[in-house]
């Protein structure tokens, strides 16, 4: 269905381009290739256009869908024949797959299909010759040869032979017509040509996990471990196929895997897709879909494709506003917590633990619960805010379209009022402007503060990314400056006393601390001449010894505000 549309679409088109083809692959698809010239370097590519059209009539009770696969850059090349399409077949592992059933013995089992397609099973060893004398050496036989030899040994076993003779002489012969004797033959039950007998033999095999320390005992592994075993088998098949497209499609590989195993899986898949060629294996291309931040954080950023609004947005170099240095930075610092941004409906990027704790509370108290709206908060610390924001900015948004995920970057103005330096521990005479990192309002001429604000905002704004700069100085100062001075003072005081409050042997009565904090605040409020001075004294609790922890104070402030709102 089209987004926001009322009628169902009648046609689906999917186009993909395969390049980097080897000479062998170019030969296999020679008549379907398109010659391209990009950047002055001629090359060839295989374009595949799949089209499905719904031809069902309004009055027809049957649904008729016709599909076509054509080649050429615009889909106007020759249609792919059956042989060429077979070479493009890929392996697809669906989510919530039943790995245990696929690896169990049975007719048409996936394990038998995989083993039958591997060179080690089909090409190594000789077939069994019943007329050979002396008896063959088992080590020289193929898998099928061992199966045929085993069948012959079973058939000639004394017990089987006696049972066969008794069956024929005692029961079948009296039931036979003259000249048409009935005779039974007991065998393992495999018949047909060579391929059929090999298939029947392999269908009797099963694969299960065992502990290396006790291989004779069942491992009793869970669904996740069996899924890994299943994936390993599929990779065995893909890596050993001499022809065809070595493409593995995995949907939600994180199913039934705990986080550490997920990371191990990603490391393994990265190695297998790296084209090492070890043990005669061929290079494998792997495409997977995931809802796991754990997996997303382990994949190189330029290998990710973000799906949003029915469109795919590659994050490869040259397609985003990220610089090469940004990619290197994000590869180091894009951990599992920050990778939540790939799955959010909205993102808030903040620069500290206090914002990470406090903003969800403030949003919930004003009726805008972030989790209810699918908004994730990403705490990037003191650096990297703009780098993370540029993940969502497209290099050519007019062609690709923008990523319509609203991103809010929240940062401090970092300019203190003129009264603050002495209050927060800065001693006079103050260093020259170019010799200190902190700034106060008198350092700026008229209009320069707003220019500074716009410059900060412009560094990480554009498309669906917007930067919000604090009104004054920092989060804590701004809250104190605009109506929450007493609450921030109490929270900071509690943070200073946190060890005494929470350690049993120092149990400090929290209500006594709050009462004392309120009294201290009232005295400080009476002594201050204006709101800037009062807010600066509140903020000094975070800068002067003993310093209050901002994250701990944020937690206390969240509890204070929730309690006050609950009381009305």
List the helices and strands and how they pair.
Elements: E1 11-18, H1 23-28, E2 34-38, E3 41-54, E4 65-71, H2 82-87, E5 91-93, H3 99-102, H4 110-116, H5 119-122, H6 143-155, H7 158-172, H8 194-202, E6 210-211, E7 214-218, H9 223-240, E8 247-251, H10 259-272, E9 285-289, H11 293-298, E10 305-308, E11 311-314, H12 324-333, E12 346-350, H13 353-365, E13 375-379, H14 385-389, H15 397-400, E14 407-411, E15 415-416, H16 420-423, E16 439-440, H17 448-459, E17 465-469, H18 475-496, H19 498-502, H20 510-527, H21 531-540, H22 550-567
Parallel strand pairs: 5-8, 8-9, 12-13, 12-14, 14-17, 15-16
Antiparallel strand pairs: 1-3, 2-3, 3-4, 6-7, 10-11
What number is the mean pLDDT?
A: 86
Rg computed from alpha carbons, rounded to a whole number of angstroms: 36 Å
Distance between the termini: 47 Å
| Helix residue percentage | 25-40%
* Overall shape: elongated
Determine the strand fraction and express it as a percent band: 15-25%
Oligomer: single chain
- Low-confidence parts, pLDDT < 50 over ≥5 residues? none
- What is the number of helical segments per DSSP (H or I, 4+ residues)? 22
Write down how many β-strands occur, each being a DSSP E stretch of 2 or more residues: 17
Category by helix and strand content:
alpha/beta
Largest sheet: 4 strands, antiparallel
